[in-house]
Amino acid sequence: MEKLGIKIEHIFHSCFTLETEKHFLVFDYYTGDIELSKTKNNYVFVTHGHGDHYTPEIFNWEADNIKYILSSDIEVNRDDKTLYIMNPDEILQVDDLKIQTFGSTDLGLSFLINVDGKDIFHAGDLNWWHWKNDSPAEQKEEEIAYKNEIAKIKGKNIHIAFVPVDPRLEENFHLAGEYFINEIHPEYFLPMHFGDKYNTSADFIHKMKDSETTIVEITHKNQVIEL
Predict the structure, then answer these.
(1) In Å, how far are 7, 61, 75, 76, 93 from 48, measured between CA atoms?
(2) Which of the four CATH numbers 2.170.8.10, 3.90.550.10, 3.40.630.20, 3.60.15.10 does domain 7-226 have?
(3) Domain ranges, ordered by start, for the chain
(4) pLDDT tens, position by position, 206-216
(5) Any idea what DSSP says for residue 120?
(6) pTM higher than 0.90, yes or no?
(7) How would you label 74-98 residue by residue, b for 16+ Cβ within 10 Å and e otherwise?
Protein backbone atom coordinates (compact mmCIF):
# COMPACT_ATOMS: atom_id res chain seq x y z
CA MET A 1 0.00 0.00 0.00
CA GLU A 2 1.27 3.45 -0.90
CA LYS A 3 2.54 5.47 2.05
CA LEU A 4 0.47 8.57 2.81
CA GLY A 5 3.28 10.51 4.45
CA ILE A 6 1.13 11.19 7.52
CA LYS A 7 2.11 10.95 11.18
CA ILE A 8 -0.67 10.41 13.71
CA GLU A 9 -0.49 10.49 17.49
CA HIS A 10 -3.26 9.05 19.65
CA ILE A 11 -3.53 11.39 22.62
CA PHE A 12 -6.50 9.80 24.42
CA HIS A 13 -10.09 8.69 23.77
CA SER A 14 -11.13 10.52 20.57
CA CYS A 15 -8.20 12.91 20.46
CA PHE A 16 -5.60 12.49 17.76
CA THR A 17 -3.04 14.73 16.16
CA LEU A 18 -2.36 14.36 12.47
CA GLU A 19 0.72 15.78 10.79
CA THR A 20 1.12 16.11 7.04
CA GLU A 21 3.90 17.65 5.02
CA LYS A 22 2.65 21.19 5.65
CA HIS A 23 -0.04 21.04 8.36
CA PHE A 24 -0.67 19.90 11.93
CA LEU A 25 -4.25 18.99 12.92
CA VAL A 26 -5.69 18.32 16.39
CA PHE A 27 -9.05 16.61 16.93
CA ASP A 28 -11.24 16.69 20.06
CA TYR A 29 -8.63 17.39 22.72
CA TYR A 30 -9.69 17.41 26.35
CA THR A 31 -6.88 15.79 28.33
CA GLY A 32 -3.42 14.32 27.99
CA ASP A 33 0.07 15.22 26.86
CA ILE A 34 0.13 17.06 23.56
CA GLU A 35 2.72 19.07 21.67
CA LEU A 36 1.78 21.43 18.86
CA SER A 37 3.94 22.07 15.84
CA LYS A 38 6.42 24.92 16.10
CA THR A 39 7.04 25.07 12.35
CA LYS A 40 3.70 24.18 10.72
CA ASN A 41 0.27 25.79 10.96
CA ASN A 42 -1.86 24.18 13.69
CA TYR A 43 -5.59 23.59 13.18
CA VAL A 44 -7.65 22.56 16.21
CA PHE A 45 -10.95 20.84 15.43
CA VAL A 46 -13.73 20.27 17.98
CA THR A 47 -16.76 18.21 16.94
CA HIS A 48 -18.93 19.17 19.94
CA GLY A 49 -18.89 20.42 23.48
CA HIS A 50 -19.11 17.21 25.52
CA GLY A 51 -16.49 17.10 28.25
CA ASP A 52 -14.72 14.11 26.72
CA HIS A 53 -14.22 15.97 23.42
CA TYR A 54 -13.58 19.58 24.42
CA THR A 55 -11.94 21.80 27.00
CA PRO A 56 -11.61 25.61 26.90
CA GLU A 57 -7.97 24.98 27.79
CA ILE A 58 -7.24 24.75 24.06
CA PHE A 59 -7.50 28.54 23.88
CA ASN A 60 -4.61 28.84 26.33
CA TRP A 61 -2.20 27.06 24.02
CA GLU A 62 0.62 29.45 23.26
CA ALA A 63 1.18 29.34 19.53
CA ASP A 64 1.18 32.09 16.95
CA ASN A 65 0.37 29.67 14.14
CA ILE A 66 -2.95 28.27 15.39
CA LYS A 67 -6.56 28.33 14.21
CA TYR A 68 -9.69 26.80 15.76
CA ILE A 69 -12.61 25.17 13.95
CA LEU A 70 -15.47 24.46 16.36
CA SER A 71 -18.99 23.11 16.24
CA SER A 72 -21.69 25.74 16.78
CA ASP A 73 -23.02 24.02 19.92
CA ILE A 74 -19.96 25.26 21.82
CA GLU A 75 -20.32 28.65 23.49
CA VAL A 76 -17.10 30.59 23.05
CA ASN A 77 -16.60 34.11 24.35
CA ARG A 78 -14.05 35.26 21.83
CA ASP A 79 -14.27 36.90 18.45
CA ASP A 80 -11.12 36.88 16.40
CA LYS A 81 -9.84 35.80 13.02
CA THR A 82 -8.37 32.56 14.35
CA LEU A 83 -11.80 31.11 15.26
CA TYR A 84 -14.25 29.49 12.83
CA ILE A 85 -17.68 28.20 13.87
CA MET A 86 -19.44 25.56 11.76
CA ASN A 87 -22.83 23.86 11.60
CA PRO A 88 -23.50 20.44 10.08
CA ASP A 89 -23.68 20.24 6.28
CA GLU A 90 -21.40 23.17 5.54
CA ILE A 91 -18.23 23.67 3.52
CA LEU A 92 -15.46 26.05 4.58
CA GLN A 93 -12.05 26.88 3.17
CA VAL A 94 -9.46 27.74 5.83
CA ASP A 95 -6.13 28.55 4.20
CA ASP A 96 -5.59 25.55 1.93
CA LEU A 97 -7.74 23.16 4.00
CA LYS A 98 -11.14 22.29 2.59
CA ILE A 99 -13.46 21.44 5.48
CA GLN A 100 -16.83 19.77 5.02
CA THR A 101 -19.13 19.00 7.92
CA PHE A 102 -21.74 16.31 8.37
CA GLY A 103 -24.15 15.68 11.19
CA SER A 104 -23.97 13.58 14.32
CA THR A 105 -26.24 11.11 16.06
CA ASP A 106 -25.48 12.96 19.28
CA LEU A 107 -24.30 16.53 19.77
CA GLY A 108 -22.44 18.62 17.21
CA LEU A 109 -21.03 17.44 13.92
CA SER A 110 -18.41 15.37 12.11
CA PHE A 111 -15.56 16.62 9.93
CA LEU A 112 -14.23 15.66 6.51
CA ILE A 113 -11.02 17.56 5.78
CA ASN A 114 -8.99 17.65 2.61
CA VAL A 115 -5.41 18.43 3.57
CA ASP A 116 -2.37 18.10 1.32
CA GLY A 117 -4.40 15.99 -1.09
CA LYS A 118 -5.63 13.54 1.56
CA ASP A 119 -9.19 13.19 2.89
CA ILE A 120 -9.49 12.75 6.65
CA PHE A 121 -12.77 11.97 8.43
CA HIS A 122 -13.34 12.41 12.17
CA ALA A 123 -16.75 11.25 13.34
CA GLY A 124 -16.92 12.91 16.76
CA ASP A 125 -19.98 11.31 18.39
CA LEU A 126 -21.48 10.17 15.09
CA ASN A 127 -22.12 6.60 16.17
CA TRP A 128 -24.66 3.80 15.88
CA TRP A 129 -25.90 4.12 19.45
CA HIS A 130 -27.45 0.67 19.90
CA TRP A 131 -28.07 0.53 23.65
CA LYS A 132 -29.36 -2.81 24.94
CA ASN A 133 -31.85 -1.20 27.31
CA ASP A 134 -33.48 0.95 24.63
CA SER A 135 -36.78 -0.15 23.13
CA PRO A 136 -36.74 -1.78 19.68
CA ALA A 137 -38.26 1.42 18.27
CA GLU A 138 -35.50 3.55 19.80
CA GLN A 139 -32.84 1.15 18.54
CA LYS A 140 -34.29 1.31 15.04
CA GLU A 141 -34.40 5.10 15.19
CA GLU A 142 -30.69 5.21 16.10
CA GLU A 143 -29.85 2.80 13.29
CA ILE A 144 -31.70 4.88 10.71
CA ALA A 145 -30.14 8.12 11.96
CA TYR A 146 -26.64 6.70 11.66
CA LYS A 147 -27.17 5.11 8.26
CA ASN A 148 -28.74 8.29 6.89
CA GLU A 149 -25.68 10.30 7.89
CA ILE A 150 -23.26 7.77 6.43
CA ALA A 151 -25.23 7.85 3.17
CA LYS A 152 -24.21 11.52 2.79
CA ILE A 153 -20.55 10.50 2.92
CA LYS A 154 -20.82 7.57 0.53
CA GLY A 155 -18.73 7.99 -2.60
CA LYS A 156 -16.04 10.03 -0.83
CA ASN A 157 -12.53 8.65 -1.19
CA ILE A 158 -11.47 8.72 2.46
CA HIS A 159 -7.85 7.98 3.25
CA ILE A 160 -8.12 7.98 7.06
CA ALA A 161 -11.25 7.61 9.21
CA PHE A 162 -11.58 8.01 12.98
CA VAL A 163 -14.86 6.41 14.11
CA PRO A 164 -16.26 5.42 17.55
CA VAL A 165 -15.94 1.84 18.73
CA ASP A 166 -17.52 2.27 22.15
CA PRO A 167 -17.31 -0.63 24.65
CA ARG A 168 -20.26 0.71 26.66
CA LEU A 169 -22.46 -0.64 23.86
CA GLU A 170 -21.23 -4.10 24.86
CA GLU A 171 -21.74 -6.64 22.05
CA ASN A 172 -22.93 -3.83 19.77
CA PHE A 173 -19.68 -1.87 20.07
CA HIS A 174 -18.64 -2.68 16.51
CA LEU A 175 -21.80 -1.67 14.62
CA ALA A 176 -20.80 1.86 13.62
CA GLY A 177 -17.27 0.95 12.60
CA GLU A 178 -18.31 -2.14 10.68
CA TYR A 179 -21.02 -0.28 8.78
CA PHE A 180 -18.71 2.64 8.03
CA ILE A 181 -16.00 0.36 6.63
CA ASN A 182 -18.44 -1.68 4.56
CA GLU A 183 -20.13 1.40 3.09
CA ILE A 184 -17.27 3.90 2.76
CA HIS A 185 -14.18 1.67 2.37
CA PRO A 186 -11.61 4.03 3.88
CA GLU A 187 -7.98 3.21 3.25
CA TYR A 188 -7.17 3.33 6.98
CA PHE A 189 -9.55 3.09 9.95
CA LEU A 190 -8.61 4.17 13.47
CA PRO A 191 -11.02 3.11 16.23
CA MET A 192 -11.67 5.63 19.01
CA HIS A 193 -13.97 6.64 21.89
CA PHE A 194 -13.05 3.82 24.27
CA GLY A 195 -11.12 5.72 26.95
CA ASP A 196 -8.47 3.46 28.47
CA LYS A 197 -10.17 0.21 27.38
CA TYR A 198 -7.58 -0.41 24.68
CA ASN A 199 -8.55 -4.06 24.25
CA THR A 200 -11.62 -2.72 22.41
CA SER A 201 -9.39 -1.82 19.48
CA ALA A 202 -8.02 -5.38 19.22
CA ASP A 203 -11.53 -6.81 19.61
CA PHE A 204 -12.71 -4.72 16.68
CA ILE A 205 -9.80 -5.79 14.50
CA HIS A 206 -10.61 -9.42 15.26
CA LYS A 207 -14.25 -8.89 14.27
CA MET A 208 -13.17 -7.21 11.03
CA LYS A 209 -10.31 -9.57 10.17
CA ASP A 210 -11.59 -10.08 6.61
CA SER A 211 -11.83 -6.35 5.85
CA GLU A 212 -9.79 -4.85 3.01
CA THR A 213 -9.48 -1.63 5.02
CA THR A 214 -6.34 -1.42 7.14
CA ILE A 215 -7.49 -1.10 10.76
CA VAL A 216 -4.89 0.37 13.09
CA GLU A 217 -4.73 -1.10 16.58
CA ILE A 218 -4.69 1.59 19.27
CA THR A 219 -2.83 0.31 22.32
CA HIS A 220 -1.80 3.24 24.54
CA LYS A 221 -1.75 6.99 25.09
CA ASN A 222 0.62 8.98 22.86
CA GLN A 223 0.96 6.08 20.45
CA VAL A 224 2.59 7.30 17.22
CA ILE A 225 1.42 5.85 13.91
CA GLU A 226 3.18 6.48 10.60
CA LEU A 227 0.96 5.99 7.56
Answers:
(1) 24, 19, 10, 12, 20
(2) 3.60.15.10
(3) 7-226
(4) 999 999 999 99
(5) E
(6) yes
(7) beeeeeeeeeeebebeeeeebeebe
